[in-house]
Amino acid sequence: MRLIRLLALGGIGLVAACGKENYGPSGSCTPTATKVCLANILFNPSTLTVTKGTTVTWQNADGFGHTTTSNPSNPAACPVWDNSVAAGATAPGVLFNPSSAVTCQYYCKIHATPTSGAMRATIMVQ
Ligand SMILES: [Cu+2]
Fold first, then answer.
1. What residues pair up with 96 in beta bridges, in sequence order?
2. pLDDT tens, 34-92?
3. CATH number of residue 71's parent domain
4. Which residues surround ligand 1, an ion (CB under 5 A)?
5. Separation of CA 23 and ligand 1 centre (Å)
């Protein structure tokens, strides 16, 4: 009975994956305290709060590329980064180690700009 249910769920997943070829298996990424998921052309979570000294990574669950790029208007205490994230890949980690609490914004250069578009997000460093 349990095996049949598993097979049925697997079949549904397969059909969904094939029917959304532009999106890929976006359900396959689960955010953590230090990892942001890129799925359905959004960052999830859109605001991640971390403690000073944390390295944040980004995992792309979409079937196409994104970038994770620091906003050029960020306070000087924010790191500066610009990383491409291929479909299914994980971007290099970015260390957030400011001398005091700071809020750093970032975006995807392909699907947004620093000031507009849905694919923008925030790292709050406490
Ligand atoms: Cu993007």
1. 54
2. 999 999 999 999 999 999 999 999 999 999 999 999 999 999 999 999 999 999 999 98
3. 2.60.40.420
4. 66, 108, 110-111, 119
5. 12
